[in-house]
Structures are given as structure tokens and as C-alpha cells.
Specification:
The protein is mainly alpha-helical and 93 residues long. The chain has one domain. It is built from 5 helices and no strands. It is elongated, with a radius of gyration of 17 Å. GO terms for molecular function: nucleic acid binding. InterPro entries: RNaseH_sf.
């Protein structure tokens, strides 16, 4: 993987400002939570209480292939650059 260029102080400030403003495009956890929610909704029997939900989430979490995490982490430079280039406007991420 090629090394990405370093961000200027201005660019870092923009990214930090967007993160502080609640722009969640930079967090991969949202993607993972959405995946888990979809998997839970597709189950034949939905959880009926908090304990069943916890167990179902853990089961589905273990089923996520490691490639998904790797791809999400490797996409971060693109996400950051897209966020900077859009200056806070929506991106494809």
C-alpha cells in the first residue's frame, strides 16, 4: 500500500472540525453497527430481550470476515481526503 501524504495543519484542522461537528463519515464503527443491525433484522427469530440481543450481536460480530475490517481501515485515507475535499459536504462514504 503506498504511503499517503501527510496532512497540513490546515487540513488536519478541517478533519478535526468536521469530526467535532458530528460528521460521522470518518468513523468505521457506524458502518459496522449498520451491518450488525441488518443481520439482526434478517434473523429468523429476533431477540426478545436484552440478553438475547446481546448474544445475537456477539454471534453476528464473530461472523464478520476479517477482510471487512481490513478494507474499512485501509479506506480511511480515502475517507479523510474525501471529507477534506468536500469541506464537510456529503461524500460517497
Amino acid at each position: 500500500m503506498p504511503r499517503e501524504r501527510e496532512l497540513s495543519p490546515f487540513e488536519r484542522g478541517q478533519v478535526i472540525g468536521m469530526c467535532k461537528a458530528g460528521k460521522n463519515r470518518l468513523t468505521i464503527s457506524n458502518y459496522l453497527w449498520n451491518e450488525l443491525e441488518q443481520k439482526i433484522r434478517k434473523r429468523h427469530t429476533r431477540p426478545k430481550n436484552l440478553r438475547e440481543l446481546e448474544m445475537a450481536l456477539q454471534e453476528e460480530w464473530r461472523r464478520i470476515p476479517s477482510e471487512v475490517y481490513i478494507n474499512l481501515i485501509e479506506s480511511m485515507p480515502k475517507r479523510i481526503n474525501a471529507c477534506i475535499e468536500s469541506q464537510g459536504w456529503p461524500t460517497k462514504y
